Amino acid sequence: MTERLEGDVPVQSATTAASLVRETATLAVSGFGRVGYPKAVPLALAESGRDLSLTVVSGGSVGEEIDTELLAADAIERRFPYQATPEAREAANRGTVAYQDRHIEAFGDEVRQGHYGAVDVAVVEAVAVGEDWLIPSTSLGHTPACVEAAERLVVEVNEVQPLALQALHDVYVPDPVPHREPVPLTSPGERIGGPRIEFDPAKLSAVVLTDRPDSPYSFREPTREDEAIAVNLATFLSAELERNPTFAESVRLQFGVGSLGNALMGELGRIEFGDRDVAYYGEVVQDGLLDLVDDGSLSAVSATSLALSETGQRRLFERVERYAERVVLRPAEITNGAELVNRLGVVAVNSALEVDLYGHVNSTHVDGTHVMNGIGGSADFFRNSPLSIVTLASTARDGALNRIVPRVGHVDHTEHDVDVVVTDQGVADLRGSAPRERATLLVENCAHPSFQSSLEDYVDRANTAGGHEPHETDR
């Protein structure tokens, strides 16, 4: 036994643990932001040679061991609610894997309520385990819900993940609906739980010792468009802080994961926050947030996952206890909870594929047909935020593709949930505007000059046809 194991726990090989998963099982796995997911047991399943038709559910994105290797073994029949590898995306678009995109906030309750069938086995990664508890590794996501819902539990104890990660975790599990009480969280840095996920000891079927690290994020350098978007966002937020009483004393920010998000965080230093308390309340800890913690810009960072580059991961691991003074990891149903996003007044900043003239947003489907990764938690924040901001470059494919379009091919966020659009060209504040006014604002402020004329022509033709949101139609 090691210091990571306590009590009489059933230590098994990955191959033995994989044999507990029946051929048509619903398999729940930990993981969010491609970290904190099980590695050894999925690989053992992929290499087993068995005829598997699994339904795989996870709290967020996982790594290649599941969404590449297990998929390549033709072992996954159904996948919910998110995927982030090229292979999983291709399988979803071919229809060889039945995939459904879901909102992150609601997924925990959906698992508990059996929306995806009864969970046969949960396989989760931890840094330590006991007879009736485990301490998660680099993400929390919906691990508590998956553990609770599963008939059997397999825990991978990853010995390359620092045991000190327990200092970051704040596990609070809401009571079941309809007996749910308000979540007693009133500020991003507050702690309301502990480091452990507790479970019925009768569930624990196997403990597997592993040493395979997460695959770190690889963030590209910010593009010229990214930098222009960041400047435009910072300029807008600076003015908003002065006029909006919601932000008179504090500012709570959320950014979507990715290279653009890192660029936006890097520009926060230009904003004059004064004596306001500034904190992050979102889904993932990115490298840019560690920079802001280190320079004292943020009083707290609340998230559910450590989606860091190799450099950022090493940086955090070497000083976990120090970062734990301001960084806290919570279950996704808390980080994305409507109640908390609204109560804390979180400013939601998320990217998109395209935005149409009336403010409808497509975040997930290229050409309206081919899914990318998924909606993730963007709608959780947009719908409940006092200020929802969409950020995107005005063009793609070296300027050949317009991203401010007459009509999006797929709607993830309606105009009712979008307040502001920011591109490299400028800012369109859509609050208090009627549809035809929104069209003018978006064309004039956010569209690339090379597409403005054609968009204006479209608006003129559509207005001739009439309607509250005028469009050219085939009728």
TrEMBL record:
Keyword presence, Hydrolase: yes
Leader sequence segment: none
Top-level division of the source organism's lineage: Archaea
Entry-linked Gene3D superfamilies: Acetyl-CoA hydrolase/transferase C-terminal domain (3.40.1080.20), Glutaconate Coenzyme A-transferase (3.40.1080.10)
Residues covered by the Acetyl-CoA hydrolase/transferase C-terminal domain: 312-458
Domain called Acetyl-CoA hydrolase/transferase N-terminal: residue spans: 12-206
InterPro entries: AcetylCoA_hyd_C (IPR026888), AcetylCoA_hyd_C_sf (IPR038460), ActCoA_hydro (IPR046433), ActCoA_hydro_N (IPR003702), NagB/RpiA_transferase-like (IPR037171)
Similarity comment: Belongs to the acetyl-CoA hydrolase/transferase family.
GO biological process: acetate metabolic process
Source organism: Salinirubellus salinus
Protein name per its UniProtKB record: Acetyl-CoA hydrolase
Keywords: Hydrolase
One GO MF term attached to the UniProt entry: acetate CoA-transferase activity
Keyword flag Nucleotide-binding: no
